[in-house]
Request: fold
Amino acid sequence: MTLYDPKGNRLYLNAEERAAFLHVARQRPARDRTLCETLHYTGCRPSELIEITPARIDLSGGAVTIRSLKKRKDRSGEQKAVYRAIPVPPDYLDTLNIAHGIRETQKSRKLAHVPIWALSRVRVWQIVKDVMIEAKIVDAGHRSPKGLRHGFGVNAVVKGIPLHMLQKWMGHAQLSTTTIYADAIGKEEQDIAAKMWG
Reply:
């Protein structure tokens, strides 16, 4: 995994692009808005997003629990489920609750376990791409859900989140995978370096 394509072009959204993406997403209908905000605030993959149920939204604890879909095996070689709780902003949770009736839905044993977004990965990808086009994000390798996920990782490093915490939030099995986010350049690298200069 890398943050750059073979020609050296970045594969992550920078801070300005992330802000533009969020601005446009917030003007969309509730389903698309909350979908985009969830990807933005959790750094999850589209395949992980479409599995999120109301039962996995912790409104009082301020977190969204994601099932990591990368295959993991325990010591016996059996497939194991790995979950990660990602802290998210209260305003986002309020929007999610209002748009999808999370608190009420959690009271129903049946509905609490029905995915919030009944969409395919392809449809999620199309929604994200449409928002990115409207946000005037340049047509390049970073204009994708993966670019949004990578942007989440880079932003976390810039904001000083410890790599072991980011590893947990992103669902990486190895810390070495997470360390790629410390390789950000440009304004992101300047922001990181500014902490050393200040």
About this structure: Strands lie at 57-58, 63-68, 82-87. The chain has one domain: 15-189. The radius of gyration is 17 Å. The chain is about 45% helix and 5% strand.
